[in-house]
Amino acid sequence: MLYVKAPAKINLTLDVLYKRPDNYHEVEMIMTTVDLADRIGLELRDDELIILSSSSSIIPNDDRNLAYQAAMLLKDTYKVQKGASITIDKEIPVAAGLAGGSSDAAATLRGLNQLWDLNLSLDTLAELGAKIGSDVSFCVYGGTALATGRGEIIQQIPAPPPCWIVLAKPKIGVSTASVYGGLNLSEVEHPNTKQMIQAIEESNYELMCKSLGNVLESVTFKLHPEVVMIKEQMRKFGADGVLMSGSGPTVFGLVDSELRISRIYNGLRGFCDEVYAVRLLGERNSLA
Ligand SMILES: C[C@@](CO)(OP(=O)(O)O)[C@H](O)COP(=O)(O)OP(=O)(O)OC[C@H]1O[C@@H](n2ccc(N)nc2=O)[C@H](O)[C@@H]1O
Ligand SMILES: Nc1ncnc2c1ncn2[C@@H]1O[C@H](COP(=O)(O)OP(=O)(O)O)[C@@H](O)[C@H]1O
């Protein structure tokens, strides 16, 4: 059995520039991987079948699963005459703004590339991944990147300064399509992406906390006011910077002192069932 790590991502910035004719939105966002991961197990099959199972009762095990789609796409594109059994140990909350499904798809592409001896480059896998979803290309590489286009154009940047992340997800799932659909670009406050890149390049933790911004927050906040409350609590318990990840509803807080983590973690447990305290992964080579 081959095991592949599929880490969650957070968006340190998420800006939308305009709505495109293909109905996607042109984005500019800084994404980084965190140490909360699903584990994908892959086993070669003698027949040509792709069989998927998972530890989660809420994700589909059929062709709606993004990891299944990734396996089929790879198999069809390269006419692979082998099969695979795929198991997903789910740790990342589902429909949370943490790209769990996209990361499972990306890890499946990386793992099957190895299992099926395809020798494809990460760039090729990322290009293929974009056909499954906008976040899959980033997840193929991991690490930290500026993502543009509809999210599939990836430019690697250095790892952010080391810190802890507290993640808190309220008991609601959010549909990415409806959040993008509810965005009114004339109302939003755009984040300063350049300043965030500068903060990361200079390893300036304070500036990084100040530069956090996500234009989708306002839409999700209107749909689910409890997300605003979690953001306020996260700040109150002492996080240095707080933001909603992706289309939400997960809120993350940055903390650079280990002493404050348990206070924030325990404080948030009073409001949310799903709370995690994790490290940033930040570097591309931390996917092993
Ligand atoms: C918002 C973000 C930020 O990282 O993440 P999540 O909240 O999903 O984790 C991403 O842009 C989500 O990427 P992903 O979840 O892969 O989206 P896709 O499957 O490609 O698209 C789902 C739907 O979202 C909308 N969509 C997505 C990406 C984009 N740049 N513009 C869009 O308008 C479209 O309506 C599309 O049909
Ligand atoms: N392997 C998978 N893991 C999680 N969700 C999946 C997976 N495959 C398909 N899905 C579907 O994708 C949707 C979004 O899931 P997810 O990737 O967790 O959220 P987000 O896009 O908010 O980061 C869910 O409704 C889920 O049913």
UniProtKB/TrEMBL annotation:
Pathway(s) this gene product operates in, as recorded in its UniProt entry: Isoprenoid biosynthesis; isopentenyl diphosphate biosynthesis via DXP pathway; isopentenyl diphosphate from 1-deoxy-D-xylulose 5-phosphate: step 3/6
**Gene3D superfamilies under this entry?**
3.30.230.10, GHMP kinase, C-terminal domain (3.30.70.890)
* Root EC class: transferase
The GHMP kinase N-terminal domain, residue ranges: 65-143
**What keyword terms does UniProt attach to this protein?**
ATP-binding, Isoprene biosynthesis, Kinase, Nucleotide-binding, Transferase
What are its E.C. numbers? 2.7.1.148
Please report the stretch or stretches of sequence annotated as the GHMP kinase C-terminal domain. Answer: 196-272
Matching entries from SUPFAM superfamilies are given as: GHMP Kinase, C-terminal domain (SSF55060), Ribosomal protein S5 domain 2-like (SSF54211)
Q: Which InterPro entries match?
A: GHMP_kinase_C_dom, GHMP_kinase_C_sf, GHMP_kinase_N_dom, IspE, Ribosomal_Su5_D2-typ_SF, Ribsml_uS5_D2-typ_fold_subgr
- Residues recorded as binding ATP, renumbered to this chain, are P93, V94, A95, A96, G97, L98, A99, G100, G101, S102, S103
Gene Ontology MF terms in the entry: 4-(cytidine 5'-diphospho)-2-C-methyl-D-erythritol kinase activity; ATP binding
The GO annotation for biological process reads:
isopentenyl diphosphate biosynthetic process, methylerythritol 4-phosphate pathway; terpenoid biosynthetic process
Annotated catalysed reactions:
4-CDP-2-C-methyl-D-erythritol + ATP = 4-CDP-2-C-methyl-D-erythritol 2-phosphate + ADP + H(+)
Residues of the active site are K9, D135
Give the protein family.
Answer: Belongs to the GHMP kinase family. IspE subfamily.
The protein's role, per its UniProt record: Catalyzes the phosphorylation of the position 2 hydroxy group of 4-diphosphocytidyl-2C-methyl-D-erythritol.
PANTHER family for the chain: 4-DIPHOSPHOCYTIDYL-2-C-METHYL-D-ERYTHRITOL KINASE, CHLOROPLASTIC
Checking NCBIfam families in the record gives: ispE (TIGR00154)
Q: What is this protein called?
A: 4-diphosphocytidyl-2-C-methyl-D-erythritol kinase
